[in-house]
Amino acid sequence: MNEPKEREKQKVDDATILEPGLFSQFRAMAHVLLVSPQRNPIVWLALGLVVIVGATAYAQIELNAWSQPFYDAINRKDLSGVGRQLGVYGIIAGALALGYPDPWSKYSNQEFISALEQLGLTRLVPSLDVVARWDHELTAPEQQALAFARLFLHKPRG
After folding, report:
1. To 10 degrees, the CA torsion angle through 125, 122, 134, 109?
2. CA–CA dist 16, 28 (Å, integer)
3. Looking at the predicted structure, is the pLDDT value of residue 1 above 60?
């Protein structure tokens, strides 16, 4: 009376799929992929996704390691340490903002130098690669001139 139920069988092309097992479904998907004329683009797309996800995970791990001093300062409840780390983030954001919305790499060092020289900020030329709290280093007029240097760098259309 209690005969074991036979799995339903389904025919797809030349493959027989046993339902509803997970392994049999994966095997059917693999078979369909192998016989598909679009196999190569699908495989390349899948590999590309794996690379992108892997690179994103790696970058996140590196970012977390780079941010460790910030997290440590928070754990120690060290307000000055948190402030220093926020300053570092601000400097990085400021450096990226000079070229914003274009990537930093779009401009050559000569273009940065020219924009600074046009506004009399030649003393900053040797400091292009220096990480500092520029809001503390520059006077208010120099900060305004730096904002105009950014405009010269982007050459907005009128």
Report:
1. -30
2. 8
3. no
Chain CA centroid to CA 149, Å: 27
Ramachandran area for residue 130 (φ above 0: left; ψ -120 to 50: alpha; else beta)? beta
Token code pair at residue 75: 């754990």
Identify the pLDDT of residue 2.
47
DSSP 104: G
Can you give 39-74 as a three-state secondary structure string? HHHHHHHHHHHHHHHHHHHHHHHHHHHHCHHHHHHH
Cα separation, 32 vs 12, whole angstroms = 8
Radius of gyration of the chain (CA): 29
Tens digit of pLDDT for each residue in 85-117? Answer: 777 666 666 555 555 556 656 777 788 788 888
Instruction: Please report, for the chain, how many H helices and E strands are present, in that order.
Output: 7, 2
pLDDT in tens, 14-71: 555 555 678 888 888 888 888 888 888 888 988 999 999 988 888 778 777 767 777 7
Domain ranges across the chain? 9-64, 77-154
3-state secondary structure of 10: strand
